[in-house]
Backbone:
């Protein structure tokens, strides 16, 4: 049993990271971090008590972040939870660039935990 | 996906001792010469050919701009398509095809009965120019031993301006020997077929890039190629290095359209594109494409304008030689800002000379001197620096996309200036055109001062932290 967390750019990525660590602790499992960011992940904040495997997004095969995550789930049969961060997007932004989180929600073969940054928790 | 692992320490390679393989590698230098020369010759030949061509085919200021700039528009697309094709089918294959396209384009231009057909084949030629700009330096960097990689790529830049200079000189010779016959421009353009043949024949004798073969999983063939161009011991040792570089190149192609949604990525690419625009809006290529006409407008007669124009080519070569010798001794930003301060000053001086001096040979000479000084300061600083900064400023994973977009914008800016120059000069005169270039120079100074990062002696990690802090 393993929890996977997709860490995207921005606050929603930080949020997903924190939620993923909490989820792994709660379930007492390992954690696989898929770094969708285009820069290195800051290792300093990662806890000692959870076994973490860091997977980088790299190469043209991972150009689409959704494929990168789905391929990794497929390659690791033990994954049974995917944690992602979500945020509000403008319709224009979604039309041009699509929504990674929406596609992950719909296409993930395992249950998805979606967390929002605090400011987006409007009533 | 790659697992994070400590980056392999680059171990010392055995030195590349001379031997029978050195001669094969010597051919690489020959290819440098022809690839760069072709790029330069084909972009520069129109300068000098344009005057008889305009008379022969009855061009207006606008169609003149079209005929000149369409090659550059073609190059923008050629660079994009050429890069993709060389990743797919191999560098060698691509360069051989390009040499054929160069010949086709040249012969088409030479035989063109009217300006429309000429423009069509100039576009074809542009595809080849752009393709060559995207493939030849990559091939060279991938096949040259690491100790000589820098000098071979540098030599390519020198050869490009040498190709332009050669075109100016050959045009002046042809013009002064055969005089002012209408079809003379066809002969000028035809000369470009020679380096294309040289490139074709040379390339047939060279092997595929070992790094490309490794990226295709064809390790045995890669080792066979390396054994041709290195000592046996060195070839074995270098395979690990080739693998590491192939992996790095693969990682450079990670980012895609989705990542343009990330603010720091978007801003960084805009800065890269902005640098390309700044470089081209110095109007360097107005001089490189229209120098002869410009000097004619300044007051030189037709014969002496085409001869005076060779000075632009000569100082371009001298400038880039000086620039490349100091480029690693001065901070990038300092050198870039200094360069724009100089070019803007000379723009002003050209503009003021054209505006205030009475017509006559003194005015013509003043303009010539200031234009030549502009060309020199441009090629000694902004010319090579912009390419260097573009190769250094982007984090690995966005590099391929970011450089691709920046170079595309640079070519398009080049083309727009080339398209606009004749009608703008016709409408506003030389003086105001150069004062407008000076105004662009001031904008460029402000943009660079505010936005462009220093890349010299800074690791990519430092740069990346800096960008994220500033823009996310």
Residues:
């Amino acid at each position: 049993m393993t929890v996977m967390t997709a860490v995207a750019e921005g606050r929603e990525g930080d949020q997903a990271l924190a939620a993923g660590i909490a989820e792994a602790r709660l379930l007492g499992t390992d954690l696989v971090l898929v770094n969708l960011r285009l820069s290195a992940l800051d290792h300093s904040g990662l806890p000692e008590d959870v076994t973490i495997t860091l997977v980088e997004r790299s190469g043209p095969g991972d150009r689409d972040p959704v494929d990168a995550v789905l391929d990794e789930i497929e390659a690791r049969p033990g994954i049974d939870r995917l944690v992602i961060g979500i945020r509000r997007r403008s319709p224009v932004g979604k039309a041009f660039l699509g929504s990674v989180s929406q596609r992950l929600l719909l296409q993930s073969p395992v249950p998805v935990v979606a967390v929002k940054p605090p400011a987006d928790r409007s009533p | 996906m790659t697992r994070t692992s400590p980056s392999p320490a680059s171990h010392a390679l055995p030195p590349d001792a001379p031997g029978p393989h050195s001669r094969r590698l010597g051919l690489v230098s020959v290819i440098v010469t022809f690839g760069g020369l072709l790029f330069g010759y084909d972009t520069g030949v129109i300068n000098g050919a344009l005057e008889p061509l305009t008379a022969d085919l009855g061009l207006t200021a606008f169609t003149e701009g079209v005929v000149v700039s369409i090659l550059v528009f073609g190059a923008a697309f050629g660079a994009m398509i050429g890069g993709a094709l060389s990743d797919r089918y191999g560098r060698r294959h691509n360069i051989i095809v390009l040499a054929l396209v160069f010949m086709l384009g040249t012969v088409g231009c030479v035989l063109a009965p009217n300006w429309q057909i000429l423009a069509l084949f100039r576009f074809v030629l542009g595809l080849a120019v752009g393709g060559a700009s995207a493939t030849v330096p990559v091939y060279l960097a991938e096949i040259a031993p690491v100790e000589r990689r820098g000098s071979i790529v540098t030599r390519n830049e020198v050869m490009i301006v040498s190709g332009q200079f050669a075109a100016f000189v050959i045009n002046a010779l042809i013009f002064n020997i055969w005089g002012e016959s209408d079809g003379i421009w066809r002969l000028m353009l035809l000369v470009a077929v020679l380096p294309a043949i040289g490139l074709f024949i040379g390339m047939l004798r060279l092997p595929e890039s070992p790094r490309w073969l490794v990226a295709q999983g064809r390790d045995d063939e890669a080792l066979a190629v390396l054994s041709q161009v290195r000592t046996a011991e060195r070839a074995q040792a270098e395979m690990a290095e080739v693998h590491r570089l192939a992996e790095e190149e693969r990682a450079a192609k990670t980012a895609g359209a989705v990542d343009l949604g990330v603010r720091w990525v978007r801003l960084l690419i805009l800065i890269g594109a902005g640098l390309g625009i700044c470089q081209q809006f110095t109007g360097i290529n107005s001089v490189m494409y229209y120098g002869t006409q410009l000097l004619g407008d300044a007051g030189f007669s037709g014969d002496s304008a085409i001869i005076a124009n060779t000075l632009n080519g000569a100082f371009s070569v001298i400038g880039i030689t000086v620039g490349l010798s100091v480029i690693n001794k001065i901070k990038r930003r300092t050198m870039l800002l200094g360069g724009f301060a100089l070019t803007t000053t000379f723009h002003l001086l050209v503009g003021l000379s054209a505006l205030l001096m009475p017509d006559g040979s003194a005015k013509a000479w003043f303009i010539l001197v200031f234009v030549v000084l502009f060309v020199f300061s441009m090629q000694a600083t902004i010319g090579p620096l912009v390419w260097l900064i573009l190769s250094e400023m982007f984090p690995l994973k966005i590099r391929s996309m970011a450089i691709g977009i920046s170079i595309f914008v640079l070519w398009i800016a080049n083309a727009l200036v080339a398209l606009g120059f004749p009608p703008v000069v016709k409408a506003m005169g030389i003086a105001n055109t150069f004062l407008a270039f000076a105004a662009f120079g001031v904008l460029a100074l402000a943009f660079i001062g505010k936005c462009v990062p220093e890349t010299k002696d800074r690791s990519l990690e430092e740069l990346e932290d800096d960008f994220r802090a500033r823009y996310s």
User: Anything to note?
Assistant: The helical segments of chain A are 10-27, 65-75, 91-97, 100-107.
